[in-house]
Amino acid sequence: MTRRRVVGRQPNTKRLRAKQVDIEAALAISDVGALRRLALSEYGLVSSELRARAWPMLLNVRDHMPNYAAQIAQHRDIGQVALDISRSFWRFPTGINTKQREALRKDCSDVLNALLSLHPELYYYQGLHEFAAVLMLESTPADAFDMMLILAQCHIRDFMESSLAGALAYLELIFPIVHNFDPELHAFLLKSGVHPHVCISWVLTWFSHDLDSLSDVARVFDVCLSNHPLMCVYLSAAMICMRRDHVLAAKCEYSAVHKLLATIPTNLHLEELISMGVRFREEFPPQQLLKVNIPNPHKQQLSLCKSFGLYRGFVEALGARERWNGQPGKSTSWQETAMLITGLAISTSLWALSMFYDRLG
Predict the structure, then answer these.
(1) What is the mean pLDDT of each run of 10 residues along the chain (361 residues)?
(2) Is residue 169 within 8 Å of residue 305, measured between CB atoms?
């Protein structure tokens, strides 16, 4: 995918200062509800300093493990983590030297390897290092580890299974949202033969693989961290819908439409994307999305996704604080996911996924 830095109007300084005051007030009294509303509204949580304090609160981080690196042990994915980390921290932060980049890589490697050592039921996937890097750059390595412990048990838990079922099921929910808000665009996408795997990195990394600006990525994280685990799916659908005119003007065939959607536009307005995604989430909530019935070829796959109906609100999921046991498997990349998306039989895997959410209840 082609990465882009998004554009938009310059922030209103007066409104920005007023929002900073509101965020500080919410932090002072631990008003999580207010923080969620502020994270969703224009400018999000505004700055790295405020996000470093707000993100752990949004995730209900209560337990801290400052010596997490001491927990690192040999695990199945340690080699893949090392390979991915060795290619990281080139886009952001900007203006760092080789020594500083290597220090960041070491910190990120420690966060991921400690997580996977403590939780052998979790499976690494390619892109997880970019996800963890954003948390680390907007806070501290120790805070990033605490947040990853929570996220790995809720928001991104489905991506850290031994199979591809979770990622595939998330992707299969994107087109139904498009269908609900833009049937003409949805029909065009189906006719072109394009698959939702074009959105795989958006979903698995919350756009951190695709946007060049850390502040832009952090703004997306504001929204996803303060919302339902499926929020990344709504944002992906919004990204497609925002491009409707370009898509409908393209030749209706797979390669043309896939290439167009895979390129983040240079004139993307991030706040407009977020506003649309939030509206989709409010007007077509997860409990309704998971029951939707749409025409073939997605109907059969989507009906299997009804196992997602066992979702609880992410706050309830965080409160469960359970441990889950995985099955033997291998780490997966979004390239592998894209290759398998049309041929993988996911019914058995989704049954296993439903059993996981049963345990949340």
Answers:
(1) 51 87 97 96 95 96 90 95 94 93 97 96 94 96 96 90 84 94 97 94 95 94 95 97 96 96 89 97 91 49 35 38 32 42 34 35 35
(2) yes
